[in-house]
Amino acid sequence: MPALVEVQDVCKIYDPGENEVRALDHVSLTIDEGEFVAIIGQSGSGKSTLMNMLGCLDTPTSGKYMLHGTDVSHMTDDEQSDVRNREIGFIFQGFNLIPSLTAIENVELPLMYRGVSKKTRMELSKTALERVGLANRMTHKPSELSGGQQQRVAIARAIAQAPPILLADEPTGNLDSGSSREIIDIIKKLHGEGRTVILITHDPGIASRAKRIITIGDGKILSDVINDKYEE
Amino acid sequence: MEYLKTAFLSIKQNKGRSFLTMLGIIIGIASVITILAIGNGMKAYVNRSLDDFTSGAVTINIDQKKTSKFLTISQLKQIEEVTPEAYGITPSFSTYANLTDNTDFYCSVKGGTPVIARDSSHGICKGRFFRDDDVESASLVCVTTQQSAILLFGTDDVLDKTISIEVEGKSVELTIIGVLKSSDEDVAQAKAARKKGEQYYYIIEFFVPYTIMTQKFNIASENFTSFAIYTQQGQADDTAMKVKSIVENMLDLRGEGAVVIESFASIAGAYNKILNIVTMVVALIAAISLLVGGIGVMNIMTVSVTERTREIGIKKSLGAKTAYIMIQFLTESALITLIGGFIGMAMGALFTKIASNFMSFPPVIDPMNVLLVVAISVADGIFFGIYPAKRAAKMSPIDALKQE
Lengths: 232, 404
Hints:
The complex is a heterodimer.
Chain A: E1 5-14, E2 21-31, E3 36-40, H1 47-54, E4 62-67, E5 70-71, H2 77-87, E6 88-91, H3 103-113, H4 118-131, H5 147-160, E7 165-169, H6 177-192, E8 196-201, H7 204-207, E9 212-217, E10 220-226
Parallel strand pairs in A: 3-8, 3-9, 6-7, 7-8
Antiparallel strand pairs in A: 1-2, 1-4, 4-5, 9-10
Helix pairs in contact in A: 3-4, 3-5, 4-5, 5-6
Chain B: H1 2-13, H2 15-53, E1 57-62, H3 73-81, E2 88-91, E3 93-99, E4 102-112, E5 124-127, H4 132-136, E6 141-145, H5 146-153, E7 162-167, E8 170-180, H6 184-196, E9 203-209, H7 210-216, E10 226-230, H8 236-250, E11 259-263, H9 264-307, H10 309-317, H11 322-356, H12 367-394, H13 397-402
Parallel strand pairs in B: 4-9, 6-8
Antiparallel strand pairs in B: 1-10, 1-11, 2-10, 3-4, 3-7, 5-8, 6-9, 7-8
Helix pairs in contact in B: 1-11, 2-9, 2-11, 2-12, 5-6, 9-11, 9-12, 11-12
């Protein structure tokens, strides 16, 4: 059985030529189902590029990205959209909710793109919002919610369709420490339920909550260790 | 449904801007509707007027530049006998005249056989039309219309009154033996004119046996070079062709092109052709504003796409496909122009109503035109929405997400 995520010798080069920037420099990496991985690095280290690659938002200049044993690195735009929709739940630093839609409508979006019927959509979205503790905020617009609540809506959106991978990019970057803890707790809980979580952060404190920590710098993997301080 | 809801929300959020965008379309659609309505009204009016004149009457001329031959009354009778499908064949003369005792009135006198009673579609309402024996004996009788009678005497109770008509210095006294019915509108118009003292603005009509023209006024000869055939509408052309060949045979004028058909139907057709062209040209000019309006839509949609770059990025990262984003923006632009189209239609109807107050004929709004115009407005939105929608759909999700 192939690994869930398999990155094989991937390079991402911007502006090829004399002033080329190697955002990713021969990176190889395997993540199995059920892991909780933190990818940590300074800004400019290439962690955002890696996250875009893992999230099927970008394609590598060279190398291969296998997801469930399928090469997804050379797909068309629409095929990549499909993979994102089915395989990956995104949690962004800036929440990325649509301001004109209510909480539940935001959660419904990825289900709509998958062609789920309105009724099922409503049910799944309600369950997801209940799980992040927002049962009484379903019809609020993002502007009527606090930052922590907005991020919880985003998490609900990421899990409503039950994708195998949760990809969280600095999920607490815009939050105070109280809300941050809440969000990380929710993410840990989701992992506890069997989801694979990939957490990208620059904060060693946050990274230390993960089971495995990959450090990246200058587009290369510097270290890849099991976190012995991990608490279940 | 989802698309429509999203598009509607987005338009509602930018009410002011959406309305300004629609303005071009509104003006375009309103002017196209108004112009087409006026064009249709004009056409209907011209057709009605021509119908009133001569329904199914065809004139045949013997071109005196090509031959000096002519027909006699007995030859006309012969033609009439072999053309039973026609109501009748008559020499047809018209002239303008004055009343001897009231030179302010201007009269039109038309001479023929009794079949010219068919010039009026409303029939006789008082007395009788003149008869064949009146024609043979050149009786000094005439028939007028209800409208003319009211203009002249203030009443249509004019039987047995005598009038003295003067044509080119010769005056003849005629007894009114019949009154042709006029339309209610014409009667009302005549009464109003009489009240205001404006009766002299109208032409007074008389119908007389043609023999009065040839024998009493001496303004026409009984060597006929022109005559009219009265037939059912729709048969006019066939009958005219038949009569033409009869005349050519009779006068030995085959193949010389000297016998010419002049039908009112063909005149009406020519009028309609010209009116159609004029209407189409003006409507086309108005349609240019639709083009300009469409470009306005394209402009605003491009701005909207730029503003919503982040939203597009989010949707794409969640798995929205190119087609979904395209359709979303196309729906929005089509909805803008559709709403604009409906407002434009209402404005067009209003303009048409206002315009009808200043015109002597009522404009006619054709439902087919309205449907067409609505379809055009939607097509306008879709066509001019393609470029911005494509821009939106082609956006890379990472670049779109980077934008704040």
